[in-house]
Amino acid sequence: MQRILFLLYTLSIVLYLSSPAFAQPEEAEDEMKVLRMFYKENDLVETASRYPKPISQVAENITIVTAAEIEAINAHTLSDVLNYIPGVQLEIQGGPGSITNAHIQGSDSRHVLVMIDGVALNNLSDNFADISAIPVQQIKRVEIVKGPASSSWGSSLGGVINVITKSADDARRFGGTASASIGERNTGDYRGEVSGRTGALGYYLYTGKLLSDGLTPGTSFDGNNLYTKLHWSASEGTGLLFTLGYTSGSRGVGVFGNNDFDHLFTTLALNHALTDDMDMNLSLRTLNKSVRLGEITADDLNIGGSAKLNWRLGVQNLLLGADYDNGELKTPVIRGGEQRLEKWALFANDTIAISGFSFTPGVRYDHTNTNNDFFSPSIGVTYTVVDHTILRGYAARGFNIPPLANTFAEFVQEATVDTTTIRLVTQPNPDLKVERVWSYAVGLESALLKQLWLKTTLFRHDISDAIDIATSFEALPDGSLQVTRNSVNSGKQRRQGIEVEMRTAPVYNTTLLAGYVFTEAKNRDTGERIPDVARHTYDIGLQYNDRQSFSGELRGHYIKWDADASHNSLICDLYLAKKLFSWDERAVETFFSARNIFNSSQFLDPLFKTPGRWFEGGVRFRF
Q1: Of 60, 124, 205, 436, which one is least surrounded by beta carbons within 10 A?
Q2: Bridge-based pairing state of the strands 159-165 and 175-183
Q3: Strand ranges in 221-295 using DSSP code E only, listed in sequence order
Q4: CB–CB of 149/156 below 8 Å?
């Protein structure tokens, strides 16, 4: 397979060198026409290649959610935003702020890389990303790559969820938003944001509080968040960017007790245009996390940085870069009480656009101090058949670094069940290998029919060295039972299926949305199905927007989990918003949500059942 990728990359270079034209403004304009047909905003896609480019040149299966779409569903946290995305399946363990596990096309939640401002939010211990602690007010858009993006981002076997925050440069005057909502069980969300510019300094500031007594037993939430972004335009083509995000809170996790968390991240970046066709970006980042669940504590500290050089030459856009991260985990349940994950990487990717075709070869080399090295090539191709139809093909090799808990966890727990003492022993496995995947996807995206947009993708992920938990039982002489667990590379898996999305053009201000995903997950060694995977997922929606004062959405979501204890029903939610009055650029709006309006039940684990029907309402002031 690596030889095939090398030949395809060579073919891309040959086509580039043989192209008679370098600068093709007509083709660039055609790509923008396609972009405008597919998406409401003319945002370029950043996550696929780590630089902005038109959607017509993106070979990966990607979905974009904008700030306007987030506001329309009265979302509280990132988990609300992802709930209606075809190909993304969530295990929501309660109401607002409750712990949520995110899966992409049947992947494990640890395989999903979650980032904000280029900072990976996944824990070092278990690679869990706390998406329900990420507020949404500061989000400009979310880009979701479905499938491994290892040639750009490294460890991301299942996919990438990239949160891109609002720009400090967007505002030309001082302004902002203040909002408050209240719902059942004292559920409240209170937010405020301001942005503006003073000379060469652009700024964006946000603060908020989310709280709830818990819509299901033991799932209360009390969280505070703060976000700051400053951009200083030093000169033409040169700028400094600083961001700081802080979230803290406490939530109930049912029978497992309380979960307290503290997250602080910062970034500092220099952007400089070396020439009209070449940009340089240097960035530093820190992430400090403290988590407590019951009596177990874990503290993460990660310091890292990146360097990128982006070179544009006619039909070609070449990116060269390097990443470095040094992470330290302190917890009493890990060998020695402290372990490190140090990693560095070199990467390159290219986009070559010629006569309706684009070729996107990429490669990355990762080194870790825990699990050796990994080489991640990828190749993608897109072809604009007609103005509003794109064909896509993508093949990539990806990987996931074993979480430090799988490699180094070492502790003993005892419990008494009836009259038997159970001794649970967790052992480390420092010889764990990285989980590997070969991923393939082909698809079509079309707005050829003026009233209908359609996107369909066939995907296949062949996973090797999948991590599983091996368990052994031993009856001890004192009558107790010892259960020993450790992580092992268990074998091969295959996750494959089809993903379909569609939406209509507005008719009488009304738009219809629909999505369907089928995922078959099997053990390639035994042929058995892999449990706890979402086999069928349906999404439906009806949107109304008169673009003056009133909007509403009815959204439905159904997951058929491949698990005996799961419960599968359609959950329907209603969202309404009304502009009461406005003057100049100011406005007062009211909004209302009715979630789970048919009082249905949909869950994977009976310990975390779906909240029943509940309501909330609020007011928003723009100034």
Answers
A1: 205
A2: unpaired
A3: 221-235, 238-252, 258-275, 278-293
A4: yes
**Calpha distance 79→84 (Å, rounded):** 10
Between CA 155 and CA 434 the distance in angstroms is 9
Token pair, residue 425, equals 């022993």
Tokens, residue 119: 């900072």
Which residue shows structure tokens 């992802």? 82
To the nearest 10°, report the CA torsion of 39, 42, 46, 51: 150
Residues 6 or more apart from 564 whose CB is under 8 A from it? none
Residues 6+ apart with CB under 8 A from 379: 5, 8, 9, 359, 360, 361, 362, 394, 395, 396
Torsion angle of the four alpha carbons 45, 144, 106, 325, in this order, in degrees rounded to the nearest 10: 100
6 pLDDT band, cuts 50/70/90, is very low
Q: What is the pTM of this model?
A: 0.92
Domain segments of the chain as ranges: 2-622
Contact by Cβ (8 Å): 602, 558: yes
Q: What is the CA radius of gyration of the chain?
A: 24
Per-residue pLDDT tens for 256-298? 899 999 999 999 999 999 999 999 999 999 999 999 998 899 9
Pairing of strands 112-116, 119-120: antiparallel
Query: Residue 9: which H helix or E strand, with range?
Result: helix 2-18
Using DSSP bridges, classify how beta strands 389-400 and 139-146 pair: parallel, antiparallel or unpaired.
unpaired
On whether the CB atoms of residues 185 and 252 are closer than 8 A, the answer is no
Tokens of residue 548, six digits: 């003056």
Alpha carbon distance, N-terminus to C-terminus of the chain: 56
Structure tokens at 453: 């947009």
Match domain 2-622 to its CATH number in 3.30.230.10, 2.60.40.1190, 2.40.170.20, 3.40.50.300.
Answer: 2.40.170.20
The residues with which 375 forms a beta bridge, in sequence order, are 365
The length of the chain is 623
> Could you tell me the two tokens for 252?
């109930």
pLDDT at site 564 = 85
